[in-house]
Amino acid sequence: MPLIRFERRDLFTYANAFTFARMLCIPLFLWLLFSRENRAAAAWLLGGLGATDWVDGWLARRFEQVSEFGALFDPTVDRLMFLVVVPSLIIDGSVPLVVAILFLVREGVVALAAIGLAALGAEPFDVTWEGKTATFLMMFALPLFLGGESTLSYAAVCEVLAWLCAVPGIAYGYYTLFFQYGPAARRALSGRTTPVPGADGGV
Question: Where residue 66 sits, what CATH number does that domain have?
Fold first, then answer.
């Protein structure tokens, strides 16, 4: 089974540093939500994390620091964020249970598939525009649901916007899962991986 080896210059990049900083914001989010019980601040932080998801990819291209490690690190942090944030919002009661379950099932399947493909030595494949759009919409739906349950003066607007992001986000997410990444995974396992045009980042 081939092992992936990363050179030092692939690890210490501006893009990876930014991704690492975003990862450190996850415990800060938990502290704001549960220790401070400040849903508004937690929602703003989560929204900021979603809005800056593109920055690490831009930094990698801007400074010519695109690497295999970065291509794995960025979506891993995105996945970790979902797998921590969604259960937290379920506990907090600020996200509809059906939405949370659909989010978690999709993210769990993708995470397990990524681990399985890596363990089998399959080559990674690029994400698609639809996959990136699904991630983008879901990253905004969650803080909007949280904002909708907060003391913000525009909480009602947040709730409406949350549904406008969640419904197409879930639809895109499952479309990419079954009709894009599923076939791509099968090609990767058969040794015939063909990269799919897409943006850097989460799937």
Answer: 1.20.120
